[in-house]
Amino acid sequence: MQSKYSNIEKYYFDLIKKLGPHGSQILKELLNSIKNKNYLTIIILSATLFDVIKHESSEVIKNLSGIEINTVFSSRDAMWLRQRRNQIIHHEGATDGLLGSKTDINTLSLDANKSIKILSDLLYFILK
Fold this sequence. Notes:
This protein is mainly alpha-helical. The chain has one domain (2-127). 77% of the residues lie in helices and 0% in strands. The protein has eight helices and no strands. Helix 2 (12-18) runs antiparallel to helix 3, helix 4 runs parallel beside helix 8 and helix 7 (76-89) packs across helix 8 (104-127). The longest helix is centred in the C-terminal third of the chain and has 24 residues, at 104-127. The chain starts with a helix and ends with a helix.
């Protein structure tokens, strides 16, 4: 997870300048969660920040065209991220990583890494 974190950390100051106050605070909390390997929190905050970026009136979203917004925020990865977050916070039945097995931590770690990758790809795209 360190390499993905380093990428977000590398662009942290650029991101803080371009995100709104809501997005900036979530980003700070996400970075703390990554440092502490809080996998559930990483998944939840990654998806939340993804959605906040789309809806918060900030420099970031104003610089994207409607086609770019639709493409990025409606992608297969975006849908996976939202669905995974919703499985965690809206418990409607058993879900991977929360089954009470010895492999849960591995599943959550993999999902947290995937969440960071999806968010990192978005952040890279919007900073270009």
